[in-house]
Amino acid sequence: MAVEVHPIQLNGNWDIGYALDQHVIRSVHIADDPFGNPVFDNTYSEIGELLTKFKYKGRYDNLTEIVSTIEVFLRSHPEMMDFETIIPVPPTKFRPYQPTWEICEALAKDLNRFFITDVLVKESGVESKGLSLEEKRQLSGTIRQQHRAKRKHSVLLLDDLYKTGTTLTECVSVLRRDPLIDKIYVLTVTKTKNPS
């Protein structure tokens, strides 16, 4: 069952891009932890709550609602539906399951599209979460295309969370070098409020 979302258009080097909703809709600083790090009381969007619990709390059962919400969104945006292949943004951190891969695989199955995990690989093991925009820019050049397209077609590049767009921009730049990739659509489940 899909949840209500408030899509946000994402501008970049892709053809069309959206985030389904904000990740956090309200955040209040309540204290600092024993190491001096700020602790926040966050109020998540509906899809942000589903994603957070799916990704960090092991709520694998949230996958169905996340994928259903993506499907409803895509069906209401037919201009983004002519892709044949879904490509996840490559992960940096090892997890027992890769949330973005799981979302892509389930979506591909429901939409009868191809899903390929190893088109793009991240060569740096540095996780961009928590890095400044400048530090993220210094990681540029760490994405490479491992497999080239075998025929001309369009792709959907999917990620769970959009923060600065640095990784997505690099992924698209790499894919643009492949002459058989036509249109590149970008979709993220959520987006942070701040660009840093």
List the helices and strands and how they pair.
Layout: E1 8-9, E2 16-22, E3 24-32, E4 38-44, H1 46-56, H2 63-75, E5 85-88, H3 99-111, E6 114-115, E7 120-122, H4 133-138, E8 143-145, E9 153-162, H5 166-176, E10 181-191
Parallel strand pairs: 2-10, 5-6, 5-9, 9-10
Antiparallel strand pairs: 1-2, 3-4, 7-8
Largest sheet report: 6 strands, mixed
Q: What share of the residues does DSSP label as strand, in percent?
A: 25-35%
**Alpha-beta content class:** alpha/beta
Number of domain units: 1
Low-confidence stretches: none
Shape: globular
Under the CATH scheme, the architecture is 3-Layer(aba) Sandwich
Structure, described:
With 196 residues, the protein is an alpha/beta fold. It has a single domain (8-191), classed as Rossmann fold (3-Layer(aba) Sandwich). Helix content is 28%, strand content 30%. The protein contains 5 helices and 10 strands, in the order E-E-E-E-H-H-E-H-E-E-H-E-E-H-E. A 6-stranded mixed sheet has the order 1-2-10-9-5-6, sandwiched between helices. A two-stranded antiparallel ribbon has the order 3-4. A two-stranded antiparallel ribbon has the order 7-8. A hairpin with a 5-residue loop joins strand 3 (24-32) and strand 4 (38-44). Helix 2 crosses helix 3.
